[in-house]
């Protein structure tokens, strides 16, 4: 086969391939195969040494012409494909602005925080101020200033996590009473919400970490009736009209007298039901008149001032409010559970 025919053949084959090219990548493969170092035209050029000297210029010219034509065609085709690919990409990536928006899934407040916020709103409405303090607390505040000396049997009631001999994870929010009295002058009206810790086994009603809210009022002539009135207002605000309190005598080292406080069962309104075990009452907090010993230890003159204090367990209120029967649900962070409280 003569040089001319060979070139014609390669040219024709290449034109065919070029016309059939469908993508940029496809085209690049063709280019390498036909024009590249190992391409067929290149091979022909290389083989020109075997031609006679008078054939060579003619052959060279034909090869170069073919090469130039093909290159031009290739470039044209490349542009064409690129334009098409771009158009397709635009088409593919069009945003359908009429589609309903996909809202990012939002978190929500934890039910304990929701209850905490409600209580805070209730008490700040009565003139209380919110005061927060350390969860890693000195034994001195957690126990000593709360009238629970070292080796006192009252310490046994609270299974304490000790960090060292003098530092504990606070077992209640009551140390905030001392912190408030030591840093403020009466009249004092504070609530102190936060986490507390006890070395309890986890079960449906116990957790080593839970939440309390301490309340403290110090002023002249504060008495037990003020505590009652405050807690009655709180009960009504939280659970509605007709919900009141019942005080039962109790003992706490930091209050004297001390009381355990029940609220009217909000699910049966006092008639007696499964939730209140037929009593019509639900125990939710402890309280009393601040022990004069505590006042004195915290630098308050007990002959001038008196005060009341109370401590509310937030888990219990949260569980009652939402009908949650297992405390563990509150800590597992299961979104299926938590999302039910989203507002
Ligand atoms: N600190 C007590 C507890 O954790 C609760 C308590 C009882 C707080 C009586 C008080 C109080 O302020 O007066 O069990």
Characterize the structure shown.
The protein is an alpha+beta fold. It folds into two domains: 3-92; 111-341, Bira Bifunctional Protein, Domain 2 (BirA Bifunctional Protein, domain 2, 2-Layer Sandwich). It is built from eleven helices and ten strands. The chain has helices spanning 3-20, 24-35, 40-46, 56-92, 111-125, 139-142, 175-183, 224-239, 292-297, 314-322, 335-338; strands spanning 129-130, 136-138, 162-164, 167-169, 188-197, 209-219, 245-252, 255-264, 281-290, 306-313. The strands form two sheets. Strands 1-5-6-10-9-8-7 form a seven-stranded mixed sheet, with helices on both faces. A three-stranded antiparallel sheet has the order 2-4-3. A hairpin with a 2-residue loop joins strand 7 and strand 8 (255-264). The protein is rod-shaped, with a radius of gyration of 42 Å. The protein binds 3,4-dihydroxyphenylalanine. 3,4-dihydroxyphenylalanine is lined by residues 172, 174, 214, 252, 255, 286-288, 309-311.
Brief overview:
The protein has 11 helices and 10 strands.
> What are the low-pLDDT stretches, counting only 5+ consecutive residues below 50?
none
Beta-strand percent range = 15-25%
CATH topology of the largest domain: BirA Bifunctional Protein, domain 2
What is the C-level CATH assignment of the largest domain?
Answer: Alpha Beta
- State the oligomer: single chain
Reading side by side through the largest sheet, how are the strands ordered?
1-5-6-10-9-8-7
Tally of separate domains:
2
Bound molecules: 3,4-dihydroxyphenylalanine
Distance between the termini: 86 Å
Query: What is the mean pLDDT?
Result: 91
Helix fraction?
Answer: 25-40%
What is the CATH architecture assignment of the largest domain?
2-Layer Sandwich
Structural class: alpha+beta
Largest sheet entry: 7 strands, mixed
SS element count, helices:
11
How many β-strand runs? 10
| Secondary-structure element string | HHHHHEEHEEHEEHEEEHEHH
Global outline: rod-shaped
Query: What is the gyration radius calculated from CA atoms?
Result: 42 Å
């Amino acid at each position: 086969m003569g040089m001319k025919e060979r070139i014609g053949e390669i040219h024709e084959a290449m034109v065919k391939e070029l016309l059939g090219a469908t993508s940029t990548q496809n085209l690049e493969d063709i280019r390498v195969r036909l024009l590249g170092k190992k391409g067929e035209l290149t091979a022909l050029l290389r083989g020109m040494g075997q031609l006679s000297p008078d054939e060579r210029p003619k052959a060279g010219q034909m090869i170069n012409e073919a090469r130039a034509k093909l290159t031009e065609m290739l470039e044209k085709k490349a542009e064409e494909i690129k334009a098409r690919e771009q158009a397709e990409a635009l088409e593919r990536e069009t945003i359908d602005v009429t589609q309903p928006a996909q809202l990012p899934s939002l978190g929500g407040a934890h039910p304990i925080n929701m209850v905490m916020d409600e209580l805070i709103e209730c008490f700040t409405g009565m003139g209380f101020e919110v005061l927060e303090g350390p969860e890693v607390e000195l034994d001195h505040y957690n126990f000593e200033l709360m009238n629970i000396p070292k080796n006192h049997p009252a310490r046994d009631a609270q299974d304490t996590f000790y960090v060292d001999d003098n530092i504990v994870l606070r077992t209640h929010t009551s140390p905030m009473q001392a912190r408030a009295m030591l840093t403020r002058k009466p009249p004092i009206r504070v609530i102190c919400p936060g986490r507390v810790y006890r070395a309890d086994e986890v079960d449906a009603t116990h957790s080593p970490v839970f939440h309390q809210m301490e309340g403290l009022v110090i002023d002249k002539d504060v008495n037990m009736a003020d505590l009652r009135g405050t807690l009655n207002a709180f009960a009504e605000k939280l659970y509605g009209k007709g919900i009141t309190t019942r005080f039962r005598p109790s003992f706490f080292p930091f209050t004297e007298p001390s009381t355990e406080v029940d609220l009217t069962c909000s699910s049966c309104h006092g008639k007696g039901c499964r939730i209140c075990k037929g009593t019509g009452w639900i125990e939710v907090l402890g309280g009393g008149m601040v022990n004069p010993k505590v006042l004195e230890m915290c630098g308050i003159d007990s002959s001038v001032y008196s005060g009341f204090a109370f401590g509310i367990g937030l888990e219990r209120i949260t569980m009652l409010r939402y009908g949650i029967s297992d405390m563990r649900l509150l800590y597992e962070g299961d979104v299926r559970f938590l999302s039910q409280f989203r507002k």
